[in-house]
Amino acid sequence: MAFSYDPYDDRTQMARTIDRYPLSFKRTPLAPLVPRPLTLSERTGPGASELLATGPTDLSRISADGPRATGQLLQISGRVTDEDGSPLAGAVIEIWQANSAGKYIHDADHHNAPVDPNFTGEGRLTTDAEGQFQFFSIKPGAYPVLESGWWWRPPHIHFSILGWSWMDRFVTQIFFPGEPLNETDLLLNAVPDREVRERLIFQFEGTSMGEINAMGFRRDFVLRGRRQTPTLD
Amino acid sequence: MIVSPYCTIGPFFPASFVDGHDDLTHYRGGTARGQHILLSGRILQEGSVPTCNTILEIWQADAAGIFRHQGDPRCAQADPGFAGWGRVRTDAEGWYRIRTVIPGSYETENNIQRCPHANLMILAIGLTRRLVTTVFFAGDPDSVRDPVLDCVADAAARKRLFALRESAEQYRFDLILRGESETPFFLD
User: Could you tell me if residue B8 is inside a domain?
Assistant: First the structure.
């Protein structure tokens, strides 16, 4: 079954240039983006689940019987669909995040917060037949954007999704509800519409108690693309 | 339903998600058919300043112009030794390097020829959304016809979508994100 794609609607997306975010003015093209027809080349894409190995869905520990990372245990779930609400089965989801102290394991992270030996902050999983996913992690900490002189990023988890094609390839950050730093975050507030902005914030799903004591959060993703009725030719 | 908003990839995309995806010419124990090349270049921001830690992804047809994807009617004949997709990160001088093959041309559904090209996508800090463009490998920029290339009206801008052939095995393609000689990017 073929998919069709419309360009992203700017009203539901972040501004490309953001005041007080100087790099956005150094990297965003000046010329208008060029409209083009979509051919097979753009409407196909990598079979990501064959190319990218998926791993354990518990990011809160490095091995199944190892100690847990420091921080609040989270159970995160959601569903990936297209614009018609049809599930995207077998989509690959890449996740990365800071540890509970706001530190990433990355050579570009110069924040003087401690690394947690029990936490890598990265994982990769696939959606099931209903487009659903679930993983455990710990609550990421906030951290300063050192070169800005003022900006602290609120706690957030990064998501990269490889869906059906080159056109629905998707990357975003998801924030936590009620965080005071959400109010001043340059990126979150670059989504013009408050209701749309909610789509970048987890929904609190309650707590579980027993063998697993975790806080539940949910975030569904809608990737660009509509299923088309198959044609007879 | 409303499409989820994009956000920048930021500076901390894990190295383990990138490592090992710079060579499309070897896949699952096989070796790709066709002319193997090193496609390399620099990704520059305003003022021709190199960008470091920029993520570049590539998606292209194999040497016979076939995409290994259910959407391609010729999918079953796709080259089993060719990955089709890759991902790299720029170094401190803004360089990226990808090993791939010269993609084949193919006919679209409307019998229009797409000439050899690869789809490129840029993700980086400072970009709230991805940037997408297409690199072309063959022919004279002034005379080649391609339905995507033909959307770029300005002759000088068209030329900036062609990789420079340095040798049979080596092609150079710089991406200039912003500035007078910036690379054309497509509406996404």
Answer: no
